Amino acid sequence: MEDRETEMIQLANDRLTPCQLKFYEEDDLKITMVEPRINKFFQGKYLQTCCVPLAEGSLIMIGIGKMNTLGIHEQREIFAKAAKVMRKYSIEECTLEVLEFIKQYGIKSIGAMVEGLMLGDYAFHAYKQNTGLRDRKIFLKGIKKEDETNAKKYLKEAVHRAEGIIFTRNMVNMPGNHLRPDDFVSYTKEFLEGTDIIVEVLTLEEIKKLNMDALRSVGESSAFSPCFMVLKYKGNPRECESFALVGKGVTCDTGGYCLKAADSMRGIKGDMAGGASVVGAFYALAKNTIKTNVVGVIPICENRISTSSLLPGDVISSMSGKTIEVLNTDAEGRLILADAITYVLQKEKVTSLLTVATLTGAVVNLFGFTITGVLTDGELLWHQFEEAYRKSGERFCRIPFYKEHEKMIESEIADIKNVGENYCGTITAGLFLRAFAQGKPWIHLDIAGTAWVDQPVFEYQTKGATGASVSTIYYLCCKE
Ligand code: BES
Ligand code: ZN
Ligand code: ZN
After folding, report:
1. I need a labelling partner for 262 at 20 to 30 A (CA). Which of 98, 138, 182, 287 fits?
2. For residue 253, what are the contacts with CB-CB under 8 A and spacing of at least 6?
3. Of ligand 1's atoms, which has the minimum distance to the CA of residue 264?
4. Cα dihedral sign for 353, 357, 360, 361?
5. Ligand 1 residue neighbourhood (C-beta within 6 Å)
6. Rounded CA gap, 270 and 251, in Å?
7. pTM over 0.90, yes/no
8. Per-residue pLDDT reduced to its tens digit, 116-164
9. For a substitution probing ligand 1, which of 248, 359, 427 has the most ligand atoms within 8 Å of its CB?
């Protein structure tokens, strides 16, 4: 996979392909120079496109609006648009003039270009007999000789990041009947083969031995047994502590006995997006040999109906020893994550931790499909996270919480209950996780709204999985 993608985008200054792709600012005078009639309908507006047949090939024109107003997100959109136009016209080889971008945003902007091109070209066609997909070759033109080494470095780094995101998308798009808990493990092992990441897997027997009662209780709702995956990457061996990434891996969430309504079932196969994001970020960190230590834990299971499923009102134990009153079987993510958090804190030397999960419908009401909700109790961690998402161009918003919210998940008969009242569901879900974090700095990403789009919002998205949070988690772990 890597080789194909690395070859897909290349630097080339002396290469002339029959198809050229050029970017134009709004009301750019160069537009009239192409063909006087063109600026009647193409004015270089942001994401406007135009394809001009020339005697020797074709010219694709992409509008960028005003060059000096583009953030990472916009740059990525522009290049995703470029990829989509190439696909639309079945262009197999194309030269892109990128000089102006480098002048404005520096050689690092290669990263946004590569991500845009690769993500914009993404399609999930695993179950189609005829995809009609062909390999494409894209040549970036206009990079100065002295910038070439850096350009190659940023290109490679971004290719790895985009490959991580694409893996996450593929996993989330995969139908539930093709992605049982043990399939999650085998696809991950296959994807991470050849990297410096160690993958360990705990079976149901080991889950029982470790008293991971919360994971066991949810997982035993299905004939497809739960498992627990541990990823270790030691990019900085002189340091013994690691940053922990904890991702929800529910490969299908029917809600259990608190069964979801038919309409809400469409996206249930995507409930392992948090876990898949952790794998995607690990891949990018290891492939780019980032000097940092991370340990990832992913509790993987299904949430279904059977005689051994939880019932509302049940009380279960957990690896931490805390007892949990389960009042809603559809609030299963926090249960399995509680055991994952306890595991990683008990077994590994952890500085701080990040949880990432498609955890609550409430966050979708709050922020829709483009902003991920964040809860955190670590001020330094939050500061580092802000830096990380400034680099990734993804959107996040911090949600506050107070003592009164903690009260909402106090149980009368057990140590804690898995749902609060009908309000502030994203906060109570987050605070449930925090109750297991033993006071370690913790940051939580609720990607329930952003992991999946029925209607793509951005050019670098397609209907379905987005891979949201992978690149931000990557940059957060890159901090030195
Ligand atoms: N996986 C869902 C959350 C979800 C909702 C993800 C919509 C993606 C889109 C989670 O397990 C869940 O069902 N949460 C419940 C919690 C409630 C019962 C307290 C919810 O948000 O409705
Ligand atoms: Zn649920
Ligand atoms: Zn769920």
Report:
1. 182
2. 260, 268, 271, 302, 303, 330, 332, 333
3. 7
4. positive
5. 253, 267, 271, 328, 330-333, 358-362, 364, 419, 425, 448
6. 7
7. yes
8. 999 999 999 989 888 777 788 999 999 999 999 999 999 999 999 999 9
9. 359
